[in-house]
């Protein structure tokens, strides 16, 4: 890890901390949400951006974390932190099972298989509505939304926790991609056969990457549940899988900062657009098409291509 | 009313420590950029309009409701402003699309509370959106008036900041309908309902209500909310069914009712439906002829009734409804009459609450909630065209009259009105004992 | 079983069919340590099929492969590489969007693990041996075809195999580069065993200690350069066609 | 309802779904077969077909046409319009991506939102009906062993409509026509040649780019036609493409990617089982089972249930 890498990423983290004191209330709330969703995008980026696994099913991992936390808190009165760890476990386990099956396929088939698994997971949530309350979702009881004396429904605490989670995920992802393990993931993405014939167990690495990715996604889902107090099936729907893809592509697939930039950019784009038209998702569509046509590397990817060649 | 908590001056915006830090920073030269924003907070003076945030289902599966909820709300605000506003201040409706999506709805509440500086939020219909957004309202300490008819408010799953003073919940709607169904239509009832929370309110409450009225449920058919073809479900209807009880929601409602007609052909049992199955849908659509002679629940009559009082016609004119309950400018644009009146009434409740609380600024939000909790009888009239209602401050739920209408010549004609007294049930929660 | 101590790789009755079509049939093959062994044969003789089975890209239909005294027939490719086999592709297959350094480092790291300093040393050494020391930072995809082939070889070197399989390494190289390549192989042969699949007869004749000739998926002949050169069957099947 | 008539009704309903699915999925399959790309926006072309049918019939109603004339106009115009839009999208977007499979997926996800949201803006968020050209209820008889031996009677509820039968017949005719076109006509041969080997086709002077645009347009037109056929039964709504897309994916995968015959067989299988499974299971559980089954088919038998391993 070079000094410049560290300065840049720690700089962002410090900046976000400073924003805690500077942002007006509304944007303060938006940033808290953006940071949690950016953790989800960071998770997705490890599978898609670094390892080249085009998944359309990551919402199931986000959902696994969310429902792991939600069901534990709602039905068993398990407090926030242990519930969150349960959520992580659910995501990791699901990613392992899905990975063992789905990674037997690749490319387009992998995309469809993950899509189908996620759809099945979504339907399972609806099917067990007795426990999950189906589309309606669950409101996490207020007393479960605290870690010790920190009240997660408090705006300031929430921001700082979102910030802490985001910082850990960001640095973890930076460390990972600079680590030899991460380098091999990139090699897999670029040329799997070659990587295999360099002696790397490509199947095992892909599975590991997917499990890491799924676990981080679940961490975000679980955090979202406790921080915002609501667990709903729509978060596990196909749209949230597409969102992850969109954010990462927009920010820059295979860049450490890309996921955050993508979520931030898209959030504000939607926010502005929804004031102009009801069809604000139109913007998402146009952005996706323009990106694939003109900037397949995304915002941070373009910066890397033009200005900063070894940006992680 | 039990007022155990002393009134604390909460800003409802940011925790005090952060605010302190902000102020300190704002005094420094470097933070000049944040000044205009502060100016906005502190200058919320009496000349400012009262802002009411309206979370509109503009897109997604609730869009037809959203459009009419907005029209009704705009008309109500116009009336209120015409009569001098609230506490002498004009009222302004701030509309945001929530996409009929819980996450978006929660964000919209944040926008109302923190960005557009709304005094209250209101207007959500779909129950999953209400359930998703209500916790945020509680955290933001933003009074949240929903118009949803879901049992979620009165069941106690929400919080002190969320109330439903404009529309009766499903549980009491059903208890009002059950005696009519068993007495007039038949004892053996098969129910068809959407397989999601709104449908569960029906599922869970109909059976006891029908049994209490001397009937029985012989069949219960849940249909997934995304379903687009329904015929294959109808064979599950037991042959000895005397009454079909149906309630459906979403874009496929017309298909549902049409295919039900095609299934039964000439030998249909009695049919009793919640008008939700045909809200925003023209009763004269091809394929619906078989509905003639069937019955519907209505929260407020869609068609102009012969004996309609003046305040009802005034309400209908203000919203822009023709005699058939469609838009005066487009007869094919049918309204959601049975639900949208709740926006009108809720806005009048907000007005009455603010006046009772002497509402001045967002600092008085808690007083507003307490003022509404103190309300009881709401007399029928220009503010309550849907009929005389009783508000229960403990459960945050209103109880109003329910209408049973029969389809006659393609129009709904009210057969029976059930007064609010017959719709009450024992309290399941006491929100007033909860802290703010 | 014939694992004499100086044999690094051998096959017994190795065969491969694609939908009933026999690409390789009953190949017995032995490779001695520190030999440069060339595998030749006309186009379509089954050379690439054969080496693909050796490295584990293809699963054989019949027969067995022994590497270093172990039966590796069922072993996945990456484990064979870990066990000491190295392979360079016939069609250039570098990581086109990564730098030359990273390409070679990927090859070196599997063996060197987290020892960053050692990896750097191996990478620098491998790149300089193939003459790409000044292209370290360049993106591999931007290199000329010949340089990409050299990069392939550098990757093979960096993974420090005990057996290096080179599939048509000189294809597309300029004459001067071929000369350098020959020198490199001579130097390498002191430390590692090399299996060379080659079309260029001058390379084969100059470098190979032993030659195996494949024809129609079967072993046609085996021997030193001189023996093969003199073999009438080979001349008929191969050198003859080459000459015409 | 007794079991026999119930099953019969479920099968009739299943046949209608199968007919629509077969049309829609053959469009997806055609595109995949020839161009080797997955069109994620396919469901939106289906939706657009339904919406266009509404637009055309509204327009024709303004001209005073009867339901039958209006419907015929819609059935001709809507697929043409949608096909042209798709062909344009191919030229403007997909061609520039060199039909790279993964980038096409991302671009067509974008296209999905563009079409869906454009429909929301132009057509609105409501479901709107199109009047069927004809729609008589047809009560169906059933036989049972009664006192006097085999008796025929009309069970309660066992019925269909003339329009639903028409949809089934129309789909069969269109698919038969498509098959004839692909196997007998020159254009069909050109498409199949392109499918086998794009580079070779170019070498033989086939204008591959134009073929691709036409194929992409034709695939979308088939989906649009499915939309036109379904709209008198279901109404047009801007979100109707999502579930239809998932079902088509399922059909195309079960049938073997790119195989037209397999697609049709799979559509019948899926359509029928959707009807029949609902006799035995709750619909959500049935969907879970079906979705997982499809995923597992792709994992363990990637060539589909009816496909032959080729590549």
From TrEMBL, chain A:
Entry annotated with the keyword Lyase: no
What does the UniProt keyword field contain?
Cell membrane, Membrane, Transmembrane, Transmembrane helix
Membrane-spanning residues: 6-23, 30-50, 56-74, 81-102, 108-128, 159-177, 207-231, 243-267, 279-300
Is the Cell membrane keyword given for this protein? yes
Q: Which GO terms describe its molecular function?
A: branched-chain amino acid transmembrane transporter activity
Subcellular location per the Swiss-Prot or TrEMBL entry: Cell membrane
Q: What is the lineage of its organism?
A: Bacteria, Pseudomonadati, Pseudomonadota, Alphaproteobacteria, Rhodobacterales
- InterPro entries xrefs: ABC_transp_permease, LivM-like
Q: Which GO terms describe its cellular component?
A: plasma membrane
Recorded topology in the membrane:
Multi-pass membrane protein
Q: What is this protein called?
A: Leucine/isoleucine/valine transporter permease subunit
Pfam families, alphabetized: BPD_transp_2
Which organism does this record belong to?
Pseudooceanicola marinus
**Sections of the chain in a coiled coil:** none
From TrEMBL, chain B:
Family recorded in the similarity comment: Belongs to the leucine-binding protein family.
The record lists the lineage as:
Bacteria, Pseudomonadati, Pseudomonadota, Alphaproteobacteria, Rhodobacterales
Q: List the protein's name.
A: Aliphatic amidase expression-regulating protein
Which residue numbers delimit the Leucine-binding protein domain?
A: 49-410
Q: Which PROSITE patterns does UniProt cross-reference here?
A: TAT
Pfam families from the UniProt entry: Peripla_BP_6 (PF13458)
Specify whether Membrane is a keyword of the entry. Answer: no
Highest taxon of the lineage: Bacteria
Species name: Pseudooceanicola marinus
Q: Which gene encodes it?
A: amiC_1
Does the keyword section mention Signal?
Answer: yes
NCBIfam families, alphabetized? TAT_signal_seq
Biological process (GO) annotations held by this record are: amino acid transport
Keyword annotations for this protein, in alphabetical order, are: Amino-acid transport, Signal, Transport
UniProtKB/TrEMBL annotation, chain C:
Q: Which SUPFAM superfamilies match?
A: P-loop containing nucleoside triphosphate hydrolases
Q: Which residues form a coiled coil?
A: none
Pfam families hit by this protein: ABC_tran (PF00005), BCA_ABC_TP_C (PF12399)
User: What EC number(s) does the entry state?
Assistant: 3.6.3.-
* Keywords noted in UniProt: ATP-binding, Hydrolase, Nucleotide-binding, Transport
- Record protein name field: Lipopolysaccharide export system ATP-binding protein LptB
Superkingdom to which the source organism belongs: Bacteria
Could you tell me one molecular function GO term of this UniProt entry?
A: ATP hydrolysis activity
Enzyme kind, highest EC tier: hydrolase
| Record domain ABC transporter: where | 9-241
Q: Which GO terms describe its cellular component?
A: plasma membrane
From TrEMBL, chain D:
List, in alphabetical order, the GO biological process terms annotated in this UniProt record: amino acid transport
> Which coarse location class applies to the principal site listed for this UniProt protein?
membrane
The source's domain of life comes to: Bacteria
Quote the CDD domains the UniProt record gives. Answer: TM_PBP1_LivH_like (cd06582)
Which InterPro entries does the protein's record reference?
ABC_transp_permease (IPR001851), BCAA_transport_permease (IPR052157)
Listed name of the protein: High-affinity branched-chain amino acid transport system permease protein LivH
- Entry GO terms, CC: plasma membrane
Gene name of the encoded protein: livH_1
The record ties this protein, via Pfam families, to: BPD_transp_2 (PF02653)
Q: What is the lineage of its organism?
A: Bacteria, Pseudomonadati, Pseudomonadota, Alphaproteobacteria, Rhodobacterales
Location in the cell: Cell membrane
Where, by residue number, does the polypeptide cross the bilayer?
A: 6-33, 45-65, 71-92, 104-124, 163-182, 211-233, 245-270, 277-300
The family annotation for this protein states:
Belongs to the binding-protein-dependent transport system permease family. LivHM subfamily.
Which key words tag this protein in UniProt? Amino-acid transport, Cell membrane, Membrane, Transmembrane, Transmembrane helix, Transport
Task: List the GO molecular function terms.
Answer: transmembrane transporter activity
How does this protein sit in the membrane?
Multi-pass membrane protein
């Amino acid at each position: 890890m070079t000094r410049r890498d560290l300065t840049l990423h720690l700089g962002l983290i410090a900046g976000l901390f400073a924003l805690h004191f500077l942002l007006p209330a509304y944007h303060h709330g938006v940033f808290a949400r953006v940071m949690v969703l950016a953790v989800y995008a960071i998770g997705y980026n490890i599978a898609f951006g670094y390892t080249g696994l085009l998944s359309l099913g990551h919402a199931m991992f986000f959902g696994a974390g969310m429902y792991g936390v939600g069901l534990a808190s709602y039905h068993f009165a398990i407090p926030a932190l242990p519930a969150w760890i349960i959520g992580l476990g659910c995501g990791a386990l699901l990613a392992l099972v899905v990975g063992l099956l789905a990674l037997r396929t690749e490319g387009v088939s992998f995309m469809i298989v993950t899509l189908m698994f996620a759809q099945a997971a979504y339907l399972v949530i609806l099917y067990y509505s007795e426990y999950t309350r189906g589309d309606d979702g669950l409101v996490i009881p207020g007393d479960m939304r605290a870690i010790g004396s920190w009240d997660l429904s408090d705006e300031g605490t929430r921001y700082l926790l979102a910030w802490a989670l985001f910082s850990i995920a960001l640095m973890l992802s930076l460390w990972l991609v600079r680590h030899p393990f991460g380098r091999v993931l990139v090699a897999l993405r670029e040329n799997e056969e070659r990587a295999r014939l360099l002696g790397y167990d490509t199947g095992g690495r892909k599975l590991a990457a997917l499990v890491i990715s799924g676990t981080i996604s679940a961490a975000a889902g679980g955090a979202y549940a406790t921080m915002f107090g609501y667990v709903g099936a729509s978060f596990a729907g196909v749209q949230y899988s597409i969102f992850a893809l969109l954010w990462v592509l927009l920010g820059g697939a295979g860049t450490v900062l890309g996921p955050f930039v993508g979520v931030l950019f898209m959030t504000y784009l939607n926010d502005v657009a929804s004031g102009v038209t009801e069809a604000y998702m139109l913007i998402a569509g146009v952005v996706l098409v323009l990106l694939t046509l003109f900037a397949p590397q995304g915002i941070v990817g373009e910066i890397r291509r033009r200005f900063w060649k070894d940006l992680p | 009313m039990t007022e155990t908590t002393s009134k604390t001056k909460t800003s409802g915006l940011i925790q005090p420590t952060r605010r302190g830090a902000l102020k300190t920073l704002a005094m420094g030269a470097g933070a000049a950029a944040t000044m205009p924003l502060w100016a906005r907070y502190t200058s919320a003076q009496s000349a400012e309009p009262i802002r009411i945030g309206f979370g509109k289902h503009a897109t997604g599966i609730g869009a037809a409701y959203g459009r009419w909820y907005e029209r009704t709300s705009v008309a109500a605000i116009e009336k209120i402003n015409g009569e001098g506003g609230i506490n002498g201040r004009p009222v302004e409706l701030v509309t945001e699309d929530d996409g009929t999506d819980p996450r978006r709805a929660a964000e919209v509440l944040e926008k109302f509370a923190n960005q557009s500086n709304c005094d209250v939020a209101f207007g959500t219909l779909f129950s999953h959106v209400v359930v998703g957004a209500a916790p945020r309202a509680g955290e933001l300490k933003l009074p949240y008036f929903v118009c949803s008819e879901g049992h979620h408010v009165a069941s106690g799953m929400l919080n002190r900041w969320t109330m439903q003073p404009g529309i009766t919940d499903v549980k009491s709607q059903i208890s009002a309908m059950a005696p009519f169904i068993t007495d007039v239509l038949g004892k053996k009832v098969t129910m068809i309902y959407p397989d999601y929370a709104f449908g569960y309110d029906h599922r869970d409450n109909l059976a006891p209500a029908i049994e209490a009225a001397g009937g029985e449920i012989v069949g219960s058919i849940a249909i997934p909310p995304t379903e687009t073809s329904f015929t294959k479900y109808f064979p599950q209807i037991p042959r000895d069914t005397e009454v079909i009880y149906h309630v459906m929601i979403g874009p496929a409602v017309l298909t549902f009712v049409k295919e039900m007609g095609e299934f039964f052909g000439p030998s249909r049992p009695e049919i009793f439906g919640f008008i939700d199955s045909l809200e925003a849908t023209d009763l004269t659509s091809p394929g619906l002829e078989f509905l003639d002679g069937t019955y519907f629940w209505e929260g407020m009559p869609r068609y102009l009734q012969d004996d309609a009082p003046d305040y009802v016609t005034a309400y209908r004119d203000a919203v822009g409804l023709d005699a058939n309950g469609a838009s005066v400018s487009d007869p094919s644009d049918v309204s959601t009459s049975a639900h949208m009146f709740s926006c009108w009434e809720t806005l009048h409740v907000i007005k009455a609450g603010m006046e009772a609380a002497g509402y001045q600024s967002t600092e008085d939000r808690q007083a507003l909630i307490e003022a509404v909790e103190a309300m009881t009888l709401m007399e029928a009239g220009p503010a309550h065209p849907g009929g005389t209602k009783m508000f229960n401050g403990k459960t945050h739920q209103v109880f109003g009259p329910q209408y049973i209408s029969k389809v006659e010549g393609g129009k709904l004609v009210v057969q029976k009105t059930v007064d609010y007294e017959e719709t009450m049930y024992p309290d399941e929660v006491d929100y007033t004992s909860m802290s703010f | 079983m014939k694992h004499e101590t100086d044999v690094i790789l051998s096959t017994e009755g190795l065969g491969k069919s694609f939908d009933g079509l026999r690409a390789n049939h009953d190949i017995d093959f032995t490779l001695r340590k520190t030999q440069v062994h060339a595998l030749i044969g006309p186009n379509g003789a089954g050379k690439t099929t054969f080496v693909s089975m050796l490295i584990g890209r293809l699963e054989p239909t019949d027969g067995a492969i022994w590497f270093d005294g172990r039966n590796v027939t069922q072993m996945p490719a990456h484990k064979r590489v870990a066990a000491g086999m190295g392979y360079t592709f016939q069609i250039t297959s570098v990581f086109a969007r990564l730098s030359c350094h990273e390409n070679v480092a990927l090859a070196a790291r599997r063996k060197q693990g987290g020892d960053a300093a050692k990896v750097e040393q191996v990478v620098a050494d491998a790149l300089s041996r193939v003459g790409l020391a000044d292209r370290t930072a360049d993106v591999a995809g931007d290199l000329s075809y010949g340089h990409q082939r050299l990069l392939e070889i550098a990757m093979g070197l960096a993974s420090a195999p005990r057996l290096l399989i080179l599939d048509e390494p000189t294809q597309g190289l300029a004459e001067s580069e071929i000369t350098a390549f020959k020198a490199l192989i001579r130097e390498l042969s002191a430390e590692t065993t090399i299996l060379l699949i080659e079309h260029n007869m001058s390379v084969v004749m100059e470098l190979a200690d032993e030659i195996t000739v494949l024809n129609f998926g079967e072993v046609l002949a085996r021997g030193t350069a001189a023996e093969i050169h003199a073999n009438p069957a080979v001349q008929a099947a191969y050198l003859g066609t080459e000459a015409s | 309802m007794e079991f026999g008539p119930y099953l019969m009704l479920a099968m009739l309903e299943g046949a209608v779904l199968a007919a629509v699915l077969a049309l829609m999925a053959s469009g997806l399959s055609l595109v995949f077969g020839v161009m080797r790309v997955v069109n994620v926006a396919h469901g939106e072309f289906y939706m657009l077909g339904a919406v266009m049918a509404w637009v055309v019939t509204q327009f024709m109603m303004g001209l005073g046409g009867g339901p039958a004339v209006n419907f015929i106009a819609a059935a001709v115009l809507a697929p043409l319009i949608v096909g042209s839009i798709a062909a344009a999208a191919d030229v403007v977007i997909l061609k520039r991506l060199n039909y790279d499979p993964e980038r096409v997926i991302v671009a067509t996800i974008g296209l999905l939102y563009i079409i869906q949201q454009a429909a929301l803006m132009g057509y609105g968020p409501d479901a709107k009906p199109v009047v069927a050209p004809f729609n008589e209820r047809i009560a169906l008889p059933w036989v049972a062993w009664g006192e006097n031996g085999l008796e025929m009677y009309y069970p309660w509820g066992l019925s269909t409509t003339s329009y639903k039968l028409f949809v089934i017949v129309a789909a069969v005719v269109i698919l038969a026509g498509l098959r004839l076109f692909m196997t007998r006509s020159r254009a069909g041969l050109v498409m199949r040649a392109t499918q086998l080997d794009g580079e070779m086709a170019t070498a033989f002077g086939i204008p591959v780019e134009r073929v691709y645009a036409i194929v992409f347009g034709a695939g979308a037109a088939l989906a649009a036609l499915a939309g036109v056929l379904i709209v008198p039964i279901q109404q047009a709504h801007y979100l109707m493409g999502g579930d239809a897309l998932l079902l088509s994916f399922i059909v195309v995968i079960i049938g073997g990617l790119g195989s037209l015959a397999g697609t049709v067989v799979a559509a019948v299988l899926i359509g029928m089982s959707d009807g029949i499974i609902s006799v035995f299971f709750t619909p959500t559980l049935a969907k879970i089972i079906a979705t997982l089954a499809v995923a597992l088919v792709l994992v363990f038998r990637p060539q589909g249930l009816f496909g032959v391993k080729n590549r």
